[in-house]
Design brief:
The complex is a heterotetramer, with two copies of chain A and two copies of chain B.
Chain A lengths: L6 E4 L3 H14 L2 E7 L6 H5 L2 E6 L10 H10 L4 E3 L9 H9 L3 E2 L4 H8 L1 H10 L15 H11 L3 E5 L8 E4 L5 H16 L4 E5 L5 E9 L5 E13 L2 E7 L6 H17 L4 E9 L5 E7 L6 H8 L3 H9 L16 E8 L1 E2 L5 E2 L2 E2 L2 E3 L6 E5 L6 E2 L6 E9 L2 H14 L1 E3 L5 H9 L1 H5 L6 H5 L10 H22 L5 H4 L5 H6 L6
Chain B lengths: L2 E7 L2 E7 L5 E3 L2 E3 L2 E5 L2 E6 L2 E9 L6 E6 L2 E9 H9 L3 H5 L2 E4 L4 E6 L6 E2 L4 E7 L2 E6 L4 E6 L6 E2 L4 E5 L1
Antiparallel strand pairs in B: 1-2, 1-9, 2-3, 3-4, 5-6, 6-7, 7-8, 8-9, 10-17, 11-13, 11-16, 12-15, 13-14, 15-17
Classes of the chains: A alpha+beta, B mainly beta.
Chain lengths: 505, 168, 505, 168
């Protein structure tokens, strides 16, 4: 019954497209990239065996164009489509259209996406199967008046949550009744613009919980295993920023119980392929089903580093109808992994997204350091897509070793031309509460003040003064039309210097 | 002829002087640094420590730079002797600081304007909501003052660095 | 009795200095680099907390200057010196001088270096302890006449081997008596120039053996463990080029026996710190002690990737007189690791070393890929030092997964401006004999023909034609003194383009 | 005015013609390629495949380049119309190929010269031992011929690309 996949269209961009292409290359599978006009020179386009232009920069004219993507897959003789995360990855209609076109959708069955994608049906199913859930409404809000009524019933603080998608978009915590209308409008606007679906529903906001999720893998033969947990409590505006595996508070017993609940949840919706069950854990270490992400997660690498299992390769294997090559007993977590999402955001200025051209980029290297990046030197970070440009992931012998390794890697990471969240990640790695594993999902809100970021030393300021003067004088020389010998130095890369007969010194 | 700059960083001042013989004085003291042009900027070494720097101009007409040193970003403002001289005759630095503008930090769409012309505002107060990268971003006033002019309206698409509001 | 090390002088350069500095940073230890004039802008100098100039480019005026290095360590307030590999790493006199200066030598006791560094005494000791050795002479050759006599006794083919150092320098295989004098002279010259010691001795050349070595770790408390084997049979001119762990032919039983022999060898010389016992294995899987390397090996990363143990951190721990945090039973090999040494050599031209400036450099990234590099874009590969500029190391779920990952990583590695051994490594990863694990140390000699390297496709030649024309026209424009707008494109890095108001497209 | 080049790579010939309107013809057929300047050279895309290229001149006076395409290195020789015309009047390509030089591939020290002037040698025969990077490297003759001149002597230090031997 199994069928080999020979060629995959990757319906995504950035780091995750590169990640998938790498796995395909290692499996000897031909890769076809699709790209918008803004991405013509992007790494995912360059790394793929073939690249097809599918439209202008805005996602709804390119990466969200189901018809164009499916037509491209057929024209390019692909057997299968991998949707990555975001974009069309949790769109049941797309999964169905892919199958209808005679192609393999590398992800769960459309029915599972549908069941788990609809928060209401997912909740009902979980309740029926005995998986604990957070109290809340069963259907989307229809009017501000109804919302106010429901919120009072559930009890403040409440959480407004977009029915479609995830990733913090279209989410708002409301602590007081008088803030509800404004928050609802804003959440609906954001949901409409991000997912084309403005349905929002209400649930009880569990105070100070941790967000911990379980990775599952299920094959078409009905075998379902879990690959341990990921601790994802370090969030900003409901967006995960630092993830790790294992969690500092999950022991073998709790892992086994959560793992079983996750496997039950996956079985309940006849799940096949890789998926994640998100839980909230309260102060008593009681856990509640939050939602299931029916796709590969951004943070999947931390699980890969502690289990040694390549999740993308397993997704492809399972999509080929082949059985998983291991059972639950074979899976062991070794060491500790941490991921930092690196975003083009100005940490000192309320994390405002930054745009621009990446002038220099040299990711950290060495033992236990993995950089999953979607950019190259010269890439442009534009307003069209997510500000996350790379994921820096480390593996250490234990949690403290991993924290120290992450500090070293963050210090080593060179990137110029855009503001990044590296200083923020560095702050997290130094914070006593993070080091102690004593934090909840409000960690950033409670502990982070931009003023606490380290100030430059006097010597660093002197170096900055010299650099500014040097840049300034080059600029003036150039403006004055003088020899551009001076102009070149430092703004040209070494080959220019070599051609001019000199070395770099 | 020696060249002298006054450099402003993080509220501190450095006087950098380079003699004709390329001797460097910082705050009047001789300063010895090695300099290497590397692939990603200029590296200086002094006191046996390496400083990887990268400088980008941030203004079209003022000598202002954003400099990264060993991963730490900072704003650097230069003043050469000529500028210093001119300032002493004209409107000085102090006066300039009292007027400010709110600029868009990135391209995006104005979704809400939270102040009106003539309104008295605090430093750090939210003044505009800008939608970009599918997120609503609150733009804050850099300093206290009176809203002199609002240069955009809701639903306007703006480029990076567009002046949104003048504060006086 | 244990003492914390707070500050380490790294008495080396290139990738291994960077490797050691990274480990120190992760341990919170201050690092002091030393550098020759040729290395003033090198990565190891930039990454260290402090950097001290110790002399001109030639090693014997800088990296081999024991006195200067020890003085520097004291002036810079270091507690310890890490010698890396090569240079002073196996110099007992240096180890003694370091200790005499009140500093810690991060390596074995001088007596162990001495015993194992002298091939003759090492052989005697091994024979006494029942570790099997290859037949050969017990002292260095004193004259060509004596060599001829000895060689006949041992029986051709014989191996000429420098008494000092390793790494293939000063080694020659001699198959016929009439070639002996020429080979001896050449080996002696090379040994003199590389190690300042032209003593050469003779041993039986075991035909078609595999070179497999065992990593050991010993602490000051007398605990000695082994970390499994490294397969190092892919060699060129007695220089290892591809290494892996585990070996395709070593099973648990053989690993245990070789491991025990290695631990016995280490115990025989009262070894402390990390060391490697090299063995030859013949067709019957009988193994012979070859020599002990009393230092960190170039190929140590493959062991790190399969055991999860950071060897440099363990070296420092042991040097602090602390006990190893694990026993033999805790050590398990997981998955499979392969290392390719990337050298600046022209594969199509008899591996002639190449020199020049690295115009562009973007190492491979992603899950399971580790690049230990000693260069940056703009670095100069000079004649003064070893042509190895980086080690590309991969980890895979099994041997075939690791081979496929290495192929992908080699394809992804971008480096311009120098010829490299990447095409050769790619050849090895494709070769059926390598894939089957069916090879001996003559693999390269028997199987590699430069003509077998893949030829460019027609489309690649067309791209080359376009690139050459573009470069040519830029050149002509520049020579004609026309606007250098055209000249800049493609030879300047993106920041220059940005300053000129354009993007990179 | 259109520009025409004949390009020699690995013994094959490509005729590349660019019209005034920047239309590209390769071997007479229209050819459509995208072109992107990237951080490490120029990337071309045609037939939906990407080709990362990097070209370095290898001669001071001839239009010869070493080009890397997707990691594969090759030597490329250009001939424009002017050169082609001149060649037809002067000594042609064929003649040139019969004389060759042995150059040092890297800086180093000459440790042995294995041939003598006037000697008949084979292509690929070892002619000189060059010590560099602490290894003895045997330099081979690029083509068969007669050793016309030996330009170095033992113990000489040579730079990269120094002519060591002329073969005719």
């Amino acid at each position: 019954m199994s069928q080999s996949i020979r060629s995959i269209l990757v319906a995504n961009r950035g780091e995750i497209a590169v990640r998938i292409i790498r796995a395909c290359k290692e499996l000897g599978i031909r890769t076809v990239a699709v790209y918008s006009e803004a991405d013509a020179a992007s790494p995912h386009v360059r790394y793929a065996d073939e690249a097809w232009l599918i439209g202008p920069a805005p996602s709804n004219q390119s990466y969200l164009r189901q018809d164009v993507i499916i037509d491209t897959a057929r024209s390019a003789n692909c057997d299968a489509i991998h949707p990555g995360y975001g974009f069309l990855s949790e769109n049941a209609g797309f999964a169905r259209a892919v199958e209808k076109a005679g192609l393999i959708f590398i992800g769960p069955p459309a029915s599972a996406i549908e069941t788990m994608g609809d928060k209401t049906s997912a909740r009902k199913l979980m309740i029926a199967r005995g998986v604990p859930v957070v109290p809340g409404t069963e259907s989307a809000v229809t009017s501000p008046e109804e919302a106010e009524k429901t919120a009072l019933e559930v009890g403040y603080p409440i959480l407004l949550k977009a029915a479609a998608g995830g990733g913090g978009k279209g989410m708002r915590v409301v602590e007081r009744p008088e803030d509800l209308r404004k928050a609802l409008e804003s959440a609906q606007n954001e949901a409409r613009s991000a997912f084309g679906d403005d349905r929002v529903y209400i649930e009880k906001f569990v105070v100070k919980p941790r967000h911990i999720e379980i990775q599952v893998l299920a094959d078409a033969q009905g075998s379902i295993v879990h690959l341990g947990e990921r601790e994802c409590s370090i969030q900003r505006r409901h967006q995960k920023v630092v993830e790790e595996s294992p969690s500092a508070i999950v022991d073998a017993e709790l892992r086994a119980r959560m793992g079983q609940a996750a496997v039950d949840a996956a079985r309940a919706c006849s799940y096949v392929n890789a998926g994640t069950i998100e839980f909230l854990i309260d102060e008593n270490r009681d856990f509640y089903f939050l939602e299931m992400n029916t796709r590969l997660q951004v943070e999947h690498p931390v699980t890969e580093l502690v289990t040694g299992i390549d999740l993308v390769k397993m997704q492809i294997l399972v999509a080929e109808q082949k059985p998983l090559p291991f059972t639950q007993d074979d899976i062991r977590l070794q060491g500790h992994a941490i991921e930092c999402r690196l975003c083009a955001e100005d940490v000192r200025n309320n994390f405002l997204p930054d745009t621009g051209i990446v002038m220099a980029c040299r990711p950290a290297q060495g033992f236990g350091v993995r950089d999953d990046s979607g950019i190259l030197e010269g890439s442009e970070i534009s307003i069209h897509y997510d500000p996350m440009f790379a994921k820096l992931v480390v593996w250490g012998m234990d949690r403290m070793d991993a924290i120290r390794k992450m500090r070293r890697a963050l210090d080593e990471y060179v990137i110029h031309g855009i503001e990044t969240t590296i200083p923020f990640c560095r702050f997290v790695m130094e914070h006593p509460k993070f080091i102690d594993g004593d934090f909840q999902i409000d960690f950033v809100q409670v502990h982070f003040r931009p003023e606490d970021l380290p100030e430059p030393t006097e010597d660093e300021e002197i170096a900055a003064a010299l650099a500014a003067i040097e840049q300034h004088e080059r600029w003036e020389l150039s403006a004055a039309g003088k020899s551009n010998g001076g102009l070149q130095i430092g703004r040209c890369s070494p080959w220019a210097l070599r051609n001019r007969g000199g070395g770099s010194r | 002829m020696s060249v002298v700059y006054t450099v402003y960083i993080n509220g501190r001042e450095y006087r950098v002087e380079r003699s004709e013989e390329d001797t460097l004085l910082i705050n009047g003291k001789p300063f010895d640094a090695e300099r290497y042009v590397v692939n990603d900027g200029v590296m200086y070494r002094f006191n046996r420590k390496s400083y990887a720097t990268y400088a980008v101009p941030t203004s079209d007409d003022e000598p202002q730079y954003h400099v990264t040193v060993n991963g730490k970003g900072m704003s650097v403002e230069l003043e050469d002797e000529k500028t210093a001289l001119m300032k002493s005759f004209q409107i000085g630095k102090a006066t300039q600081l009292q007027s400010a503008t709110v600029r868009s930090p990135m391209p995006g769409k104005i979704t809400r304007i939270m102040v009106t012309e003539g309104e008295l505002i605090e430093a750090g107060q939210g003044v505009i909501i800008l939608e970009a990268m599918k997120m609503e971003n609150e733009i804050k006033a850099p300093s206290a003052g009176i809203v002199k002019a609002i240069r955009v309206k809701e639903a306007d698409a703006v480029e990076k660095n567009t002046v949104l509001i003048d504060i006086s």
